[in-house]
Amino acid sequence: MTQASIDGLDALSKRFSSEFPLVKSDKEATDNYIAKYRTDAENYIKLMPENDQTIYNNYLKKYGLA
To answer: Can you give the residue range of the structural domain that contains 30?
Structure first.
């Protein structure tokens, strides 16, 4: 996997870690945040090089996350 893809996925993870605690006490805010985050993450993954997408999807399958 390219370093750029790794860095982007890491940035998404860090973003979630810092932003989610701000909304977790409110169900509607949580639902809205998760929907927006999911869209952003899916869009980022679609922009990764095809080989990186394959590696990422294989990782998800390997660990039962897909």
So the answer is: 3-62
